[in-house]
Design brief:
Blueprint: H1 2-28, E1 31-34, E2 39-42, E3 44-51, E4 56-59, E5 62-63, E6 69-72, E7 75-81, E8 84-91, E9 98-104, E10 109-116, E11 125-127, E12 132-137, E13 143-148, E14 153-160, E15 166-173, E16 175-177, E17 186-187, E18 193-200, E19 203-210, E20 218-219, H2 220-224, E21 229-234, E22 241-248, E23 253-260, E24 265-270, E25 275-278, E26 283-286, E27 292-295, E28 303-304, E29 320-325, E30 328-332, E31 338-343, E32 347-353, E33 358-361, E34 367-371, E35 375-380, E36 394-400, E37 406-410, E38 416-421, E39 424-429, E40 438-443, E41 451-454, E42 459-466, E43 469-476
């Protein structure tokens, strides 16, 4: 009898081995049994890369164990998911939840590389300021310039961001800051000199001042002895050099000038310029024919960039040129018509929108953000090879609202956009799968407020009312985490 039992036990184990081994192999290969269909199906996966990184992940409201998460390169992968539709939720303490409906396909991974959670109550910090009308952080985040909202008087202040100490730089009578939201105070690349667009004696002008008071404040019209000045910009390479357009009274045309504060000598470097833009070592400019040219910073080595005209119609004296490189440019006419040249797999040259108020290229040049008073859109300048896939020259509407859009900025990942409306600072993602998630980051107490975003450090600056005075505050998003922030 014992011999018979041993044989039964042996063959039972052997049969179980024959049955279980294929199941184990199939499971290890990613196959899962579908009870509804009664067959084995090849599973898929979901990959997420999140900010913050310490999150909890739920699938159909069931929290996933940390043991089931495959963590590689700061991303999280959930393997072995049967094909189908799932509700996935990402949560973290003190943050708003991110939630989407996700399609999982056999043998494929559904990838979400830019999941950003907004803080529920961002920590606000105040910067020393008073009666602020507008403000302008310096390029490396060391200083903030602002001016007071005073009648017929311009008071320019600078606050040291590290010490929070404020110093009065200039107080000018019979002058006011320019109301043009597209032309801001500009710091030079050394963070020590400023150009502030102003209106003085009913004429547009620029106040030149030093953040450390190393230079007595002076107007550009006074040192250049020219009128009808516009589009003043600091040189990207010489800290004391300014480029600007000025009209000649007898011809009524604009020339591009260059002046050095070392000797206050201005010179025409390119005549008959409608508008221009500067890169690290190049001047891009358009003349009356609306064809793009470029030169070096001295106005030499002139060459034609494009064979086509942006348009055969006048773009107006207020037109703005925004250049990423020789292959990617945008021209915004005075009336808000947006013309784009994108030389990728095909040479795209086209008017794409009217009523446009602003344009921003992403840092890698693969996207271009633009907006009207009530609508925000993105144009993809290069084919996007990762999920969500996008085609070259594809234009997507990000959001359309009835209230005016203000303070539009790329987040540092260039997959999210800040904007403000109805006293709220909002953050919206570009990924349109299922829906675009839009967070209310902060509710302000001002109807209309200027803001600025320092993408390198993640500082979002804005004005907020405190006892009847407009003062500068900021919060950090994304928040710095980990050893390297």
């Amino acid at each position: 009898m014992q011999k018979t039992y041993r044989r039964i036990f042996f063959w039972g184990i052997f049969i179980l081995f024959l049955i279980s081994t294929p199941l184990v192999i199939l499971h290890s290969k990613g196959y899962r049994f579908d009870r509804k269909r009664g067959i084995f199906v090849y599973s898929g996966s979901i990959t997420l890369k999140t900010i913050p990184t310490n999150v909890r992940i739920f699938i159909n409201n069931e929290e996933q164990s940390s043991k089931s998460l495959d963590i590689i390169n700061n991303s999280v992968t959930l393997n072995g998911i049967r094909p189908g539709t799932y509700r996935i939720r990402v949560a973290a303490d003190d943050y708003l939840d991110w939630e989407k409906q996700v399609e999982v396909h056999s043998g494929l991974s559904s990838e979400f590389w830019n999941v950003v959670l907004a803080p529920q109550n961002p920590e606000l910090k105040e910067i020393e300021s008073q009666k602020t009308a507008r403000f302008f952080p310096s390029p490396f985040g060391k200083k903030i310039a602002y001016f007071e909202d005073l009648e017929d008087k311009l008071s320019l202040w600078v606050t040291d961001f590290k010490t929070n100490q404020t110093e009065l730089i200039s107080s000018q009578d019979n002058a006011s800051a320019s109301k043009d939201r597209l032309e801001n105070l500009e710091w030079n690349f050394k963070e020590d000199l400023m150009l502030l667009p102003v209106v003085r004696n009913n004429q547009k002008d620029y106040l030149i001042a030093s953040g450390s008071q190393a230079l007595n404040p002076v107007y550009l019209s006074e040192i250049s002895r020219l009128k009808n000045i516009s589009r003043a910009r600091w040189s990207p390479q010489e800290k004391n050099t300014i480029y600007f357009l000025a009209g000649e009274s007898d011809w009524g045309r604009n020339n591009l000038y260059r002046i050095s504060l070392n000797d206050n000598v201005s010179q025409i470097i390119i005549p008959d310029v409608s508008t221009y833009d500067l890169s690290q070592n190049t001047i891009y400019y358009i003349q009356e024919n609306n064809i793009l040219f470029k030169s070096n910073l001295e106005g030499g080595n002139i060459s034609q960039v494009n064979d086509n005209q942006f348009t055969n119609q006048s773009v107006g004296n207020g037109a703005r040129l925004v250049v990423y490189d020789d292959d990617r440019q945008a021209l915004l006419s005075q009336t808000g018509s947006l013309f784009v040249h994108n030389n990728g797999n095909e040479n795209f040259f086209q008017k794409i929108a009217d009523g446009v108020e602003g344009v921003q290229f992403s840092d890698d040049g693969k996207k271009m953000l633009f907006w009207t008073s009530n609508e925000m859109l993105v144009m993809f300048l290069r084919k996007w090879e990762v999920q969500p896939y996008r085609g070259e020259n594809e234009i997507q509407n990000i959001i359309r609202i009835s209230s005016p859009l203000e303070n539009v900025f790329w987040l540092r990942d260039y997959e999210h956009v800040f904007f403000s409306t109805d006293k709220k600072i909002k953050l919206i993602e570009l990924d349109s799968r299922d829906r675009r998630i839009c967070f209310d980051v902060f509710g302000n107490n001002l109807d209309d407020f200027p803001a600025a975003y320092d993408a390198d450090n993640g500082y979002y600056f804005f004005l907020r009312d405190v006892d009847g005075e407009r003062k500068i505050f900021y919060f950090i998003l994304p928040e710095k985490t980990g050893i390297f922030g």
